Amino acid sequence: MSYTIETIARVHSPYKQKFGVARQPGLVPAAEVCIELNPEFHADSVRGLKDFGYIWVSFIFHGVLGEGWSSLVRPPRLGGKQKMGVFATRSPHRPNHLGLSLLKLERIETGKTVKLYCSGADLLDETPVIDIKPYIPFVEAKSDAASGFVTGKPQELAVAWQNEALQTALSKKERDVITQSIAQDPRPAYQNIPERVYVMNILDYEVKFQIQSQTATIIDIALHQA
Fold it and tell me: What range(s) does the TsaA-like domain occupy (predicted)?
């Protein structure tokens, strides 16, 4: 039996490419997204939602739809070497390429279209959203649950700026999004090439940086050329 799922919204995100997207929600608190509902969903569809602190967002990993899936994947948490079953991971390479993120709901705008602004996002720009639900703590918060091979937050990189001019050209919010995103170490888990220059398209910028030991150094920032 087959089913058709229609998208209900699109995401406007600072992450313009897969490289650099936070690997889990909440790891980059400064990463704010706007979830813009389709025109047929009016203010009535979100009545009461503003009273919740967090929302579940079901979405499609549209950036990897053409890459297929595998029953075994290599989680970054295990160094990219050990394999786990796809259903024991949050890999985007899934049979139906469906994702789920828990985001902090900051505010809702109900103008011409309904817009939900959320922080701590791990969503690629233009991500198709298929459902939104409120987070209910007493039902869904299980502090004593076993977490398998995932033990606490991943270790973060220290982030340095090669010179002060790179920082002063940006607003504090822009600096926070860039710094927090790079601190998550977007490299493939198996890659450690100190001389390599990485390029991340984030916000309206192309950010270049290098990683040596546990420190990432931002060496250049320029407006992204579409």
Answer: 5-144
Residues 179, 111 share a domain: no
pLDDT-derived band at 226, boundaries 50, 70, 90: low
126 and 32 in a single domain? The answer is: yes
28-37 pLDDT, tens digit per residue, is 999 999 999 9
> Domain of 163?
158-223
Residue with tokens 């990219």: 80
In a domain, 2, yes or no: no
Q: Model's pTM, two decimal places?
A: 0.92
